Automatic annotation (TrEMBL):
Lineage of source species: Bacteria, Pseudomonadati, Bacteroidota, Cytophagia, Cytophagales
Pfam families per record: AP_endonuc_2
Gene3D superfamilies in the record: Divalent-metal-dependent TIM barrel enzymes
Name the record gives this protein: Sugar phosphate isomerase/epimerase
Superkingdom assignment: Bacteria
Xylose isomerase-like TIM barrel domain ranges (all copies): 61-305
InterPro entries: IolE/XylAMocC-like, Xyl_isomerase-like_sf, Xyl_isomerase-like_TIM-brl
Keyword Isomerase: yes
Record's keyword terms, sorted: Isomerase
């Protein structure tokens, strides 16, 4: 499918149909105004949080399990390095089962979205190989960020939607769902509006988005706009916080803080996610160099406790 294959009229019609399933959930469904005391959320550890400790794939999983997380988001390059040491995907799957933890998602950086056809083809091939590997170990999802389309603005969002649909069709083949990820520092797909447009315009029933507290703020999205997203469009939400300084436009990944330690509207976000419906995996994603210098297990436990504290506050308010 190329960019000209969808007429503007057909695209708008498709967007309208898909929007009925993914937008405006509060106007279409009855949601309780006050969250219940029982939390609908589960908790995950994104391995970026412990990346500086250089634990290696197996130890990362062991720390997450010992800290009490329900699941993890692995980094694909860490898994690949582990396999290069002589291990097999089948062994990895057994190890995951023995630890009693789920690999819920994976982080990769394939250039599936770019304009250059050669680079995009290589990116699609990379994504397919990674998704096939993830299926072997039982991982049902992967992040799909706008890798390679971050420096130059002006990406055609309809073209991006067609490319995302092609990625989703690979997901149909492998059983691994690619989630369109917001990158707040990117010149493209840095707002919730852009990501939702691409997801809706892909016209695919498995289209999902992967939001992040830091990236929503960094890219200039209004948190209130989250209420427009149906809960079925979000399986995983990256949890973190951000400081008052430096200014928003100067924030970097390394400025991310534990949930509740910054100024982000996390309670509002949790309440909005609950009211949107559907179970959610809250995944701690940090790149804080100060945390990387600390004991990995203590960092993991602290992050989990702080996520749960935010959720408890939201559930009681």
């Amino acid at each position: 499918m190329n960019t000209t294959s969808l007429s503007r009229r057909k695209a708008l019609a498709g967007i309208g149909l898909a929007a009925s399933a993914s937008l405006l959930p509060l106007s279409l469904h009855s949601r309780p105004k006050t969250p219940p005391t029982e939390s609908p959320f589960r908790y995950s550890l994104n391995m970026s949080t412990l990346r500086g400790q250089k634990l290696g794939f197996r130890k990362e999983l062991e720390v997450a399990a010992q800290a009490g997380y329900d699941g993890v988001e692995i980094w694909i390059n860490s898994l690949q390095e582990y396999l290069k040491q002589g291990h097999t995907p089948q062994e990895v799957r057994r190890m995951i089962g023995d630890l009693g933890i789920k690999v819920e998602d994976a982080i990769g950086f394939a250039t599936w979205i770019v304009d250059d056809p050669t680079t995009r083809r290589k990116g699609m091939d990379q994504a397919k190989q990674e998704m096939e590997l993830l299926a072997e170990i039982g991982c049902p999802r992967t992040a799909a960020p706008p890798m390679g389309a971050t420096e130059q603005p002006g990406l055609d969002l309809m073209a991006a939607a067609e490319r995302y649909r092609a990625l989703l069709e690979i997901g149909d083949q492998t059983g691994v769902v690619p989630q369109l990820e917001i990158w707040g520092f990117s010149k493209n797909l840095h707002t919730l509006a852009q990501v939702m447009f691409v997801a809706v315009a892909s016209q695919h029933p498995q289209a999902h988005i992967l939001p992040d507290v830091y990236h929503l703020y960094r890219g200039g999205s209004d948190i209130a706009s989250l209420r427009l997203v149906n809960g079925e469009a979000i399986d995983v939400f990256h949890m973190n916080d951000y400081p008052t300084a430096p200014p928003r436009e100067q924030l970097k990944d390394s400025h991310r803080l534990y949930p509740g330690d910054g100024t982000g509207p996390l309670v509002e976000i949790i309440k909005t996610l609950y009211r949107a419906g559907g179970p959610k995996l809250l995944s701690l994603e940090l790149f804080n160099e100060a945390y990387w210098k600390q004991d990995a297990l203590q960092v993991a436990k602290t992050g989990l406790a702080k996520m749960k504290a935010v959720v408890e506050k939201a559930m009681q308010s």
